[in-house]
């Protein structure tokens, strides 16, 4: 009798244990993490990785999935490839109205976006290392001469995909007036591509025309990649000597930095009228429904939640965290402070849950 009772008790205990395990497993299965998909410009990679870690620690019910591309490529994933994306962060806020406002989601017939926040500013500069060729000679007065030397390996990001790509060409075009030399642009690019990038100088307007096929020649000393962030490893390894990059990224990576004159760095409000003299045009249709034209202007990053977001509640939670104390600190620690209070375009159309953020 006693043995029967012991056996019964053991079976009961085992049953309770099984039920507890089943309950725990069922709870995990019943409550999967909510995914938030973020597509961001490559220059945001370092701070956004830290934000991802901090956000998931605070909100373990969410799983942030980050992808980084050149800013134009980020737009293509939304407007041309129609991927389910919850947050878009671009290094050029002008791309949002140009492409997302102007393109409708085929599933709903509505524009992909109708508002954005001006996230942050930046300046363009030249990254190099102490071992780079002529590192002891390069200055803010002769950088264009150094970078045009055939024995200097210069990294360029592709202007068909990346904001640094078309902005670095704007710098060379604007440099001609600043240094009084109308051959700076051609001296740098001549013989570097199988099909040339052309500059049309109309005096008060500079137009840069980029061909559809952009390949370097066998003798080129320029090295091109799809985004500026992809050039960092080449610079660190000594495979290139110089690369155009944002000041925030150069500081994050610990490279040497040559500050460009305010007339050229696209980050000084006093010179914005001069920046607007230059325009980059693609001599082909890069997007399915919009022919983009990139205008010289003050560098402003943009952030928005696409209307096609599959998780708008999670996207709003990320947006609020990003502009909260934790997000602000991470961005500032990475030399990329946020614009506060929030500025932008049509902020009255932001989700209701976020409108309180614009008042501080």
Protein described:
The chain has a six-stranded mixed β-sheet, with helices on both faces. It has 360 residues and is an alpha/beta fold. Helix 2 (45-58) links the parallel strand 1 (34-41) and strand 2 (62-69). It has two domains: 32-121 and 299-359, Periplasmic binding protein-like II (D-Maltodextrin-Binding Protein, domain 2, 3-Layer(aba) Sandwich); 124-282, 3-Layer(aba) Sandwich (D-Maltodextrin-Binding Protein, domain 2). The protein is built from twelve helices and 15 strands.
In a few lines, what is going on in this structure?
By secondary structure, the protein is of the alpha/beta class. It contains twelve helices and 15 strands.
Q: Which helices and strands occur, and which strands form pairs?
A:
Elements: H1 2-30, E1 34-41, H2 45-58, E2 62-69, H3 71-79, E3 87-90, H4 95-101, E4 116-121, E5 124-128, H5 143-147, E6 154-157, H6 163-179, H7 184-189, E7 198-201, E8 206-210, E9 222-225, H8 232-237, E10 242-246, H9 247-253, E11 256-259, H10 272-275, E12 278-282, E13 293-295, E14 300-304, H11 312-323, H12 325-333, E15 338-345
Parallel strand pairs: 1-2, 1-3, 6-9, 6-10, 8-12
Antiparallel strand pairs: 3-14, 4-14, 4-15, 5-10, 5-11, 7-8, 12-13
Helix pairs in contact: 2-12, 3-4
């Amino acid at each position: 009798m006693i043995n029967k009772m012991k056996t019964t008790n053991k079976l009961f205990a085992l049953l309770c244990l099984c039920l507890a395990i089943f309950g725990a497993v069922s709870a995990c299965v019943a409550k999967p993490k909510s995914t938030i998909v973020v597509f961001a410009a490559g220059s945001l990679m370092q701070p956004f990785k830290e934000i991802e870690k901090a956000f998931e620690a605070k909100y373990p019910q969410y799983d942030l999935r980050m992808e980084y591309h050149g800013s134009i490529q980020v737009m293509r994933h939304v407007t041309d490839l129609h991927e389910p994306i919850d947050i878009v962060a671009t290094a050029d806020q002008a791309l949002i109205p140009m492409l997302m406002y102007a393109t409708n989601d085929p599933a709903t017939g509505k524009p992909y976006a109708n508002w954005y926040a001006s996230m942050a500013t930046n300046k363009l500069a030249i990254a190099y290392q102490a071992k780079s060729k002529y590192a002891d000679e390069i200055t803010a007065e002769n950088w264009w001469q150094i970078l045009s030397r055939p024995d200097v390996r210069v990294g360029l990001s592709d202007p068909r995909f990346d904001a640094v790509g078309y902005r670095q060409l704007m710098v060379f075009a604007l440099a001609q007036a600043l240094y009084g030399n109308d051959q700076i642009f051609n001296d740098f690019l001549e013989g570097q591509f199988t099909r040339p990038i052309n500059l049309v100088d109309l005096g008060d307007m500079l137009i840069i025309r980029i061909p559809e096929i952009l390949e370097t020649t066998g003798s080129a000393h320029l090295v091109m990649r799809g985004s500026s962030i992809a050039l960092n490893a080449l610079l660190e390894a000594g495979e290139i000597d110089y690369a155009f990059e944002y000041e925030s990224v150069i500081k994050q990576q610990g490279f040497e930095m040559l500050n460009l004159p305010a007339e050229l760095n696209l980050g000084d409000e006093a010179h914005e009228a001069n920046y607007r003299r230059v325009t980059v045009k693609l001599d082909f249709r890069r997007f399915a429904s919009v022919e983009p034209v990139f205008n010289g202007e003050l560098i402003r990053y943009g952030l928005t939640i696409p209307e096609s977001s599959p998780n708008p509640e999670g996207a709003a939670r990320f947006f609020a965290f990003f502009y909260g104390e934790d997000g602000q600190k991470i961005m500032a620690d990475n030399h990329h402070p946020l614009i506060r209070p929030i500025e932008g375009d049509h902020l009255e159309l932001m989700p209701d849950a976020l409108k309180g953020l614009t008042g501080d």
